[in-house]
């Protein structure tokens, strides 16, 4: 009990003596937590959205003529040769026409006079949930294009490609901001603590002479690191939450929101970020203590 | 309490601050170290409190070979040794009370007890009105007494005092010596390095004179 009293008193003195650099460190740590958590949030939401979108992926193979029942069986076998599928559905010319007409609704009269078979027959292939990577879908589509009678394969390749590169880019940004966080947390904290230690050399010497134990001298500095990590991550995450709330309140465009259902970071992730920052800051203070507080 | 066997301390190759000192100081003794400036008094005290390590020889304090002690054990032994340094080693930007409290804080004394002890000591040393003064602003004589107060604050078993009365008038000197005598009567072993004959001539104490780092004489002062 008295030990902790002494430790807190000492840590308080440290904070008072070097509050300028402490504040700087604290701000840097919060800012880098904010930057990292922001990109991570964007990343998880993008991944979430892409998962949702890929649930709706279907490849449409347009055929140059209506396949007979035998031909259908053959095609199904060939498609399943490449990989098992969730579903394979044949759409005849008639069905395509009906569907189109239904989509037009009241305007369906524009179709009057058109031949009922002007739309091509097609196969709708829903790939297995496991086959969801961009490159796999691409391979699959190339395979489907080589099927007998296949005219053209469509699966929204353009947005998929963009989305794919966007998530690649995001991954890099997340990794970069993670390294930024690691660097700032450890180096800044280790630097300020070194500053404190240097500025109090006399006192630390004296403490040793009057019989202060190692833990009496060191624990306040470790505590300082823990505190920097805790406060920095809490403030950084709170700022992110405020930003998140502001964005969801001000950009309530229903279309966008429905497609990208924005979620805040999960509690597990929040806890992980806080613990990691604490760990990194403690590591920073520990290295300084090891280097400059030889006992 | 203190046992030294053939202890030497050299600085570099040519300066021999102490040579072949063998000495036993009993528990409960009040022991005086004299000798002209540069004789090695401060060096001897620093060796006893493990602030310096001997170049040669063995030093035992309270049964421990003090130079083999490390970490917690050394810290705990140091808590039992109070030292008033010749250069005081006060923290200049702290108040008198804070400076004295440090010695007790490291052994986790209760804040209330610390405050009480500080007040008592300041009263005994006539420094009550300086309780919240920054030590930098004190006179040398006042700083000297603060250093002494810090040395005795934690009720150490061994008290080492380097020049306790150098800057003090006769009356204040007497107060300081009374404080040390009380501690001595309560069982503390006390070693005092001094130039001031008046403080050891009155009692019945052993007095050791150093000359150029060796023991010149070891006599007993007789109350006259
Ligand atoms: N850190 C040091 N480096 C080099 N020489 C030193 C050091 N400390 C002390 N000495 C030398 O050791 C000798 C003894 O010094 P010491 O301080 O023990 O003398 P003293 O008896 O305490 O003198 P005074 O009465 O003036 O305080 C001196 O010649 C001094 O110059
Ligand atoms: Mg001296």
SSE map:
The complex is a heterodimer of chains A (295) and B (224).
Chain A: H1 2-17, H2 19-55, E1 59-63, H3 69-82, E2 85-91, H4 93-104, E3 122-127, H5 134-145, E4 150-154, H6 157-199, H7 201-209, H8 214-250, H9 254-259, H10 267-292
Antiparallel strand pairs in A: 1-3, 1-4, 2-3
Chain B: E1 2-11, E2 15-25, E3 30-34, H1 41-48, E4 56-61, E5 64-65, H2 71-79, E6 81-84, H3 96-105, H4 111-124, H5 140-153, E7 158-162, H6 170-185, E8 189-193, H7 198-201, E9 206-211, E10 214-220
Parallel strand pairs in B: 3-8, 3-9, 6-7, 7-8
Antiparallel strand pairs in B: 1-2, 1-4, 4-5, 9-10
The structure holds adenosine-5'-triphosphate and magnesium ion (MG).
Describe the protein's architecture and organization.
- The complex is a heterodimer of chains A (295) and B (224).
- Chain A has 10 helices and 4 strands, in the order ααβαβαβαβααααα.
- Chain A is elongated.
- Chain A folds into 2 domains: 2-53 and 162-292, no CATH class; 58-154, Alpha-Beta Plaits.
- A 4-stranded antiparallel β-sheet of chain A has the order 2-3-1-4.
- Chain A has helices at 2-17, 19-55, 69-82, 93-104, 134-145, 157-199, 201-209, 214-250, 254-259, 267-292, and strands at residues 59-63, 85-91, 122-127, 150-154.
- Chain A has 295 residues and is of the alpha+beta class.
- The mean pLDDT of chain A is 82.
- The longest helix of chain A is centred in the middle third of the chain and has 43 residues, at 157-199.
- Chain B is of the alpha/beta class and 224 residues long.
- Chain B has a single domain (2-220), classed as P-loop containing nucleotide triphosphate hydrolases (Rossmann fold), CATH 3.40.50.300.
- Chain B is 33% helix and 27% strand.
- Chain B is built from 7 helices and 10 strands.
- In chain B, the strands form 2 sheets. Chain B has a 6-stranded mixed β-sheet with strand order 6-7-8-3-9-10, sandwiched between helices. In chain B, strands 2-1-4-5 form a 4-stranded antiparallel β-sheet, covered by helices on one side.
- In chain B, strand 1 (2-11) and strand 2 form a beta hairpin.
- The longest helix of chain B has 16 residues, at 170-185.
- Classes of the chains: A alpha+beta (295), B alpha/beta (224).
- Chains A and B meet through helix 1 and helix 7 of A and helix 2 and helix 3 of B.
- The complex binds adenosine-5'-triphosphate (ATP) and magnesium ion.
- Magnesium ion is lined by residues 41-42, 86, 162 of chain B.
């Amino acid at each position: 009990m008295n030990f902790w009293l002494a430790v807190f008193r000492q840590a308080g003195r440290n904070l008072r003596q070097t509050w300028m650099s402490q504040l700087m460190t604290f701000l840097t740590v919060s800012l880098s937590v904010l930057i990292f958590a922001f990109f991570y949030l964007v990343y998880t939401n993008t991944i979430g959205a892409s998962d949702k979108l890929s649930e709706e992926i279907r490849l449409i193979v347009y055929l140059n003529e209506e396949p007979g029942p035998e031909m259908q069986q053959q095609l199904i076998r060939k498609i399943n040769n490449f990989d098992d599928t969730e579903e394979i559905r044949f759409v005849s010319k008639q069905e395509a026409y009906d569907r189109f007409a239904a989509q037009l609704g009241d305007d369906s009269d524009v179709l009057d006079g058109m031949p009922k078979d002007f739309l091509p027959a097609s196969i709708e292939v829903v790939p297995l949930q496991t086959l969801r990577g961009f490159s796999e879908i691409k391979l699959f589509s190339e395979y489907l294009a080589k099927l007998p009678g296949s005219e053209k394969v469509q699966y929204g390749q353009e947005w998929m490609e963009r989305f794919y590169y966007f998530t690649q880019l995001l991954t890099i940004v997340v990794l970069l901001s993670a390294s930024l966080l690691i660097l700032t947390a450890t180096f800044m904290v280790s630097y300020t603590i070194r500053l404190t230690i240097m500025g109090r050399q006399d006192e630390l010497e004296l403490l040793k002479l009057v019989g202060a134990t190692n833990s009496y001298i060191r624990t306040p500095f470790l505590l300082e690191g823990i505190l920097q990590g805790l406060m920095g991550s809490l403030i950084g995450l709170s700022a992110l939450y405020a930003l998140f709330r502001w964005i969801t309140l001000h950009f309530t465009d229903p279309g966008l929101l429905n497609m990208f259902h924005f979620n805040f970071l999960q509690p597990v992730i929040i806890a992980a970020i806080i613990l990691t920052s604490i760990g990194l800051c403690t590591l920073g203070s520990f290295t300084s203590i090891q280097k400059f507080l030889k006992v | 309490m203190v046992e030294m066997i053939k202890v030497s301390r050299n600085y570099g190759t040519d300066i021999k601050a102490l040579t072949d000192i063998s000495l036993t100081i009993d528990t409960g003794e009040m022991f005086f170290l004299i000798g002209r400036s540069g004789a090695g008094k401060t060096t001897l005290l620093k060796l006893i409190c493990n602030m310096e390590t001997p170049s040669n020889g063995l030093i035992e304090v309270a049964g421990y070979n003090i130079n083999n002690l490390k970490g917690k054990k050394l810290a705990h032994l140091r808590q039992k040794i109070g030292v008033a340094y010749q250069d005081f080693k006060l923290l200049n930007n702290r108040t008198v009370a804070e400076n004295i409290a440090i010695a007790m804080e490291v052994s986790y004394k209760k804040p209330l007890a610390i405050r009480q002890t500080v007040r008592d000591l300041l009263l005994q040393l006539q420094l009550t009105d300086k309780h919240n003064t920054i030590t930098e602003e004190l006179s040398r004589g006042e700083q000297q007494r603060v250093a002494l107060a810090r040395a005795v604050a934690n009720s150490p078993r061994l008290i080492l005092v380097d020049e306790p009365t150098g800057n003090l008038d006769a009356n204040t000197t007497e107060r300081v010596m009374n404080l040390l005598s009380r501690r001595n009567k309560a069982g503390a072993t006390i070693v005092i390095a001094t130039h001031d004959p008046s403080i050891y001539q009155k009692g019945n104490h052993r007095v050791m004179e150093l000359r150029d780092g060796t023991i010149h004489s070891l006599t007993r002062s007789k109350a006259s």
